[in-house]
Design brief:
The complex is a heterodimer of chains A (about 160) and B (about 375). With about 160 residues, chain A is an alpha+beta fold. Chain A has a domain of about 100 residues: Alpha-Beta Plaits, CATH 3.30.70. Chain A contains five helices and six strands; from the N terminus they run βααβαββαββα. The longest helix of chain A is centred in the first third of the chain and has 13 residues. Helices cover about 50% and strands about 15% of the residues of chain B. In chain B, the strands form two sheets. A three-stranded antiparallel beta sheet of chain B has the order 1-2-3. A three-stranded antiparallel beta sheet of chain B has the order 5-6-7. The longest helix of chain B has 30 residues. Chain B starts with 6 loop residues before the first strand and ends with a helix. The chains are: A alpha+beta (about 160), B alpha+beta (about 375). The interface between A and B is large, with 34 and 45 residues. Strand 1 of chain A pairs parallel with strand 4 of chain B.
């Protein structure tokens, strides 16, 4: 426990406006420092490797068929209940594969719990992608199916 | 002929300096405040009810959304409460990692407070500088857990991931830069006559009244009461770390300002110490995949950036909490506002809201 130190008050300093000039000196120094702001649509932020964008699906060349085994664990782990998986028998093998896989990006909160729950370790079938520009014109467009989950979100080019 | 009447006006909920959707019913005599009534609930999303509907692991995601300026502190207190219900021991490495991240979060939260508080009073520059330093911390969090605001960076029983490569060095670099930046804020504000005129003697509350209202955190310590959960009931690795708790005297806005500024320095000290002492080993304790605590109840507190964060959980032995209740320091501190602004001018209300450092997401939950 320690008492805070209040700065001393001096008549001379107050009379000469010294503290105001000290503040102005700080802002003046900043005029000559490099910019730290990003001009967003023109400059893109450099994302860290663990960045959590929207969840997507992926395959692995080492695995036969889709990596996802349609176990429904991600849907159970999701706090927003935004994942719907329908399973079918795996083509040419044992087990299951997803017949349809829907994620409602409108409800997804990017928490990453689905990735934690995914049993296909160490490479998980569902993963947090680096896509972050998710604006859409209609609510239905947020519902993403298997194809959309594999291909990812291609940002639309806008022209005047 | 010149008789005056009291006037009632609304401040907020759409007011830039009420830090969100706080509505204040001000009763005014001219420009003087006779009485104030905070009207809250505009940001109620039912986080507590959701905590009873979702499993223990899922509920951590909703604690992110309560105090969105200090999501990690909320994550932490909830996870600790569940760990106490389960009786799980957290490995020492995870404890130190939690301390590092919690203190970085405290610095980030105090930088937001500094920026917005100064901006409300009219010093716009500090806001921009404060946000610049906060960006460092957000980058560190992004690098650690992948999110910049709603982290979900604690799991029941430990931490989700190791620090990535180069993270510790990056955190140290930030700690090296921070003191010089703090000196700049001090040069801009601490002796500034406008700042002094707007903060000194404004929103004064003495220690006893503050305690009666149940205030905690820097708001209480600014009034000279030495109470900090990190010292009083040490949790995680705080008992092994050496730090000071700054105490104010007068209990006015200026003292609370100095307290928080000193807390940033102390948090930096804690981060550096914890990084030095960071032990090796496991980061996840032994927790079953499906978390089903035994029947019982627990109330757990820790020191958030704004005061004593509390979680009350009742378990009925299932995967969901039977009852989940959060003690939000913002909500409690806000109740003292009428006492603090009585007799002041309308412009001082803005300063007092700033010094209380409320986040409406946590007030309304």
């Amino acid at each position: 426990m320690s008492k805070i130190v209040r700065p001393e008050d001096s008549v001379l300093r107050r009379f000469l406006l010294l503290e105001l000039f000290a503040g102005l000196w700080v802002t003046l120094k900043h005029q000559f420092r490099p910019h730290v702001t990003q001009e967003y649509p023109r400059e893109r932020p450099e994302l860290r490797p663990r960045f959590r964008g929207v969840p997507r699906l992926r395959d692995h060349p080492g695995a036969e068929g889709p990596l996802c085994v349609a176990c429904n664990q991600c849907a159970l782990a999701c706090p927003d209940h935004c994942i719907t998986v329908v399973a079918e028998d795996r083509k040419g093998g044992k087990g299951k594969q997803p017949k349809s896989f829907h994620i409602d990006y409108e409800r997804c909160c990017h928490c990453g719990l689905c990735v934690d729950a995914c049993p296909t370790k160490p490479i998980t079938a569902i993963y947090m992608s680096h896509d972050y520009e998710m604006a859409q014109y209609a609510r239905d467009d947020f519902m993403t199916d298997l194809r959309g989950l594999y291909e990812g979100h291609v940002p639309r080019e806008y022209k005047r | 002929m010149f008789g005056t009447t009291e006037m009632q006006i609304n401040m907020g909920p759409q007011h830039p300096s009420t830090h969100g959707v706080l509505r204040l019913e001000l009763k005014l005599d001219g420009e003087r405040i006779v009485d104030t009534r905070p009207v809250i609930g505009y940001l109620h999303r039912g986080c507590e009810k959701l905590g009873e509907d979702r499993t223990y692991a899922q509920a951590i995601v909703y604690t992110d959304r309560m105090d969105y300026c200090a999501a990690f502190a909320e994550n932490l207190v909830y996870a600790e409460a569940v760990e106490r219900l389960l009786g799980v021991e957290v490995p020492p490495r995870a404890q130190y990692m939690r301390v590092v991240l919690a203190e970085l979060q405290r610095i980030a939260s105090h930088l937001i407070w500094l920026g917005t508080h100064a901006m409300d009073i009219g010093a716009l520059t500090v806001f921009v500088y404060g946000m610049r330093e906060r960006e460092f911390i957000l980058d560190l969090f992004e690098s650690y857990c992948g999110a910049r605001l709603t982290y979900n960076a604690v799991r029941v029983g430990g931490m989700p991931e190791e620090f990535p490569e180069g993270w510790v060095e990056e955190a140290r670099r930030f700690c090296d830069v921070l003191p010089s930046r703090l000196d700049e804020y001090h040069q801009l504000l601490t002796a500034n006559r406008i700042w002094l005129a707007r903060t000194r003697g404004v929103g004064t509350i003495d220690g006893k009244t503050a305690l009666d209202w149940g205030m905690t955190g820097p708001c209480l310590r600014g009034s000279g009461v030495a109470y900090d959960v990190r010292k009083a009931i040490p949790y995680e690795a705080y008992a092994d770390l050496d730090f000071d708790v700054p105490i104010g005297e007068a209990g006015d806005t200026y003292d609370r300002y100095l307290c928080r500024m000193e807390e940033i320095r102390q948090s930096r000290r804690i981060v550096l110490q914890a990084l030095d002492k960071l032990p090796g080993g496991e980061i996840r304790g032994k927790v079953p995949r499906r978390i089903k605590p035994p029947k019982g109840e627990v109330y757990h507190v820790n020191e958030g950036p704004r005061g004593e964060l509390g979680v009350y959980l009742v378990s009925d032995g299932s995967e969901h909490a039977y009852r989940c209740r959060f003690r939000s320091p913002n909500f409690v501190n806000l109740q003292a506002l009428p006492d603090m602004v009585r007799g002041h001018l309308v412009a001082d209300v803005v300063a007092v809201i700033g010094t209380l450092d409320i986040v409406l997401g946590c007030v309304d939950r």
